[in-house]
Design a protein that fits this description.
The complex is a heterodimer of chains A (288) and B (265).
Chain A (H helix, E strand, L loop, with lengths): L20 H4 L1 H24 L3 H5 L4 H13 L10 H32 L1 H16 L6 H8 L3 H25 L3 H9 L4 H38 L6 H10 L3 H29 L11
Helix pairs in contact in A: 4-12, 5-6, 5-8, 5-10, 5-11, 7-8, 8-10, 9-10, 10-11, 10-12, 11-12
Chain B lengths: L4 E10 L7 E11 L4 E5 L6 H9 L6 E6 L2 E2 L7 E4 L11 H5 L1 H5 L4 H14 L15 H14 L4 E5 L7 H18 L2 E5 L3 H7 L2 E5 L6 E6 L14 H15 L14
Parallel strand pairs in B: 3-8, 3-9, 6-7, 7-8
Antiparallel strand pairs in B: 1-2, 1-4, 4-5, 9-10
Helix pairs in contact in B: 4-5, 5-6, 7-8
The chains are: A mainly alpha (288), B alpha/beta (265).
Chain lengths: 288, 265
């Protein structure tokens, strides 16, 4: 190395190079630029090279999709099937919130009880292990028979999807609760309820949030799949099936983008909640 | 039952699943007068910490009677509070909120609770750190919080389970001096478990030497050094005589092997 021959006293570090605009924003520019490039190719390919008649039936350009989104979301035009997109959106949102809410109401207390009581744990463990290992969709035919075509079948599927990740994560978090801290609050006179409130729940919060994130994904999946098969009249999943049957690729993509945006928004919201609840933690970890 | 803290023939055996039973305390007796500072020294795994947990009311003994001020211990109570070795601070709570734990569980309203705790935070020298979280504090500061938390619930008996073991040597010296100052101020009966003979002699009115497991009281050594104690006392001839006396009692109990298992507290 040339610098090793330079006396420390005479060596003057070169001034740090000024960071260019590109260097400062490289990830954003690369990420955004690539998306734009993909859309440009997607948009221009049919215009330049043309598509065969058969292909045209299954194809929609970004501008078609934006036009569809504009007419459905902003102008609130009636769908070629039934109702407006917002009616379907609200139906799906309602199902999602109801199913997820139900699974939270069941999974959180049950997870805490399972984690804290060895007796209850031993009783429920085989059921939970078996149910959790089984793909949820195999329950769909049974659920259809029991709850009939319609709302409750969809709710049941969403619930079955969301409840297990939440239950299992809550349980793991509770099992992991710091024994020392439990003894500390016990020594100051805490009863079982207070132990759970003061130590067990805050201690297992990272697990519960992780479970919630999983549960949300499963619940959205549940909404779509259940609406594909569940026989409800309204729902974004219903629209997708019908749009696909009538080759409305622009509507299919429009609904797909709605799902994408909603999922991103929910993920961001959960992250916000998590940050708010973990201000006491020394370091934050990047999550998706 | 004339003494303030009394343990009569305490027997305690742990029977963990799939493992051999361990007798932690066997015919354990102790008598402590009110307002005394008493240290317990003994080999690792002799049941010192277990005894503190019995006294705290977290672990019921198999047989024997544990009593404080004439009342039999049946569970945790506001007359006793512990300072834990690993601090045991709730990491999601600020300093002030941690110190308030005891009063909160006693059902004291927020206003008076905050006011009382402010005084104890000042006593341990943490004014200005009320809104810090534990991870922002050094080890010594964490244990000051632990001490303030124990004192804030105004117990009659303060139990300390190797409270300074996790601290570096200098911080430990400072914390010992601080503890003596606070003890003079707060006037509590203190039961202090430690591995360090020097620490025990420096702080205590009496030092109890325990046998190896199953733990029994081997000897009660009165510490006749004058108070207030200062750092120079540690090099006085009497101090070293007492250290040697305790060491001579203790060394026979330090067998090779078999003492590694102290994790029953």
């Amino acid at each position: 190395m040339a610098t090793s021959t330079v006396e420390p006293s005479t060596y003057i570090a070169p001034p740090p190079a000024e960071e260019t605009y590109y260097e400062a924003h490289e990830p954003t520019i690369l990420g955004g630029g690539f998306i734009l490039a993909v859309f440009a190719v997607w948009e221009l390919y049919p215009a330049i090279f043309g598509l065969s008649k058969g292909m045209k039936l299954f194809f929609a350009t970004p501008s078609d999709i934006i036009a569809a989104l504009y007419s459905l979301l902003i102008l609130n035009e009636k769908l070629p099937m039934v109702g407006t997109i917002w009616q379907h959106f609200n139906a799906s949102t309602g199902t999602f919130l109801f199913g997820l809410g139900l699974s939270i109401i069941v999974a959180l207390p049950l997870g805490v009880v399972l984690g804290r009581s060895q007796t209850v744990d031993a009783m429920f463990d085989p059921f939970i292990t078996a149910f959790n290992a089984t793909p949820r969709l195999v329950f769909l035919p049974i659920v259809l028979i029991w709850f009939g075509v319609g709302f409750w079948t969809v709710i049941a599927i969403v619930f079955l999807g969301a409840v297990f990740p939440l239950l299992i994560n809550t349980y793991a978090g509770v099992k992991n609760a710091d024994k020392l801290l439990i003894n500390v609050v016990r020594s100051f006179g805490a009863n079982e309820w207070q132990i759970n409130k003061l130590v067990v729940l805050p201690n297992s919060l990272p697990f519960i949030i992780a479970g919630l994130r999983l549960a949300i994904g499963r619940a959205i999946l549940g909404v779509v799949v259940a609406e594909f098969f569940g026989g409800t009249e309204f729902g974004l999943g219903v629209i997708m099936v019908q749009a696909s049957q009538s080759y409305r690729v622009d509507i299919l993509f429009a609904v797909l983008i709605i799902f994408m945006v909603v999922s991103l928004l929910i993920t961001a919201a959960v992250k916000q909640i998590e940050n708010r609840l973990s201000r006491w933690r020394p370091a934050k970890i990047k999550t998706f | 039952m004339s003494s303030y803290i009394s343990a009569e023939n305490i027997n305690l055996t742990f029977r963990p699943k799939n493992r051999e039973a361990v007798t932690a305390l066997s015919e354990f007796n102790i008598d402590i007068e009110q307002g005394q500072f008493v240290s317990i020294v003994g080999p690792s795994g002799c049941g010192k910490s277990t005894f503190l947990n019995v006294l705290l009311g977290l672990i019921p003994p198999n047989t024997g009677v544990m009593s404080v001020n004439g009342r039999t211990v049946t569970g945790p109570g506001t007359d006793r509070a512990m300072v834990f070795q690993e601090f045991g601070l709730l990491p999601w709570r600020t300093v002030a909120h941690n110190v308030e734990l005891g009063l909160e569980l006693q059902g004291v309203a927020k206003g008076p609770r905050r006011e009382t705790c402010q005084g104890f935070i000042k006593m341990v020298g943490l004014t200005g750190f009320e809104n810090h979280y534990p991870h922002e504090l050094s080890g010594g500061m964490k244990q000051r919080v632990g001490l303030a938390r124990a004192l804030a619930s105004d117990p009659d008996v303060l139990l300390m389970d190797e409270p300074f073991a996790a601290l570096d040597a200098q911080t430990r010296d400072i914390m010992q001096a601080e503890l003596l100052r606070i003890w003079h101020e707060a006037k509590k009966t203190v039961l202090f478990v430690t591995h360090q003979i020097e620490e025990a002699v420096y702080l205590s009115d009496h030092v109890i030497v325990m046998t190896k497991r199953p733990g029994r009281t081997k000897k009660l050594v009165p510490i006749d050094l004058p108070r207030p104690r200062d750092y120079e006392m540690r090099v006085s001839p009497r101090f070293n005589e007492l250290k040697l006396e305790i060491w001579n009692e203790l060394k026979d109990e330090l067998s090779v092997g078999g003492d590694e298992d102290s994790g029953h507290a």
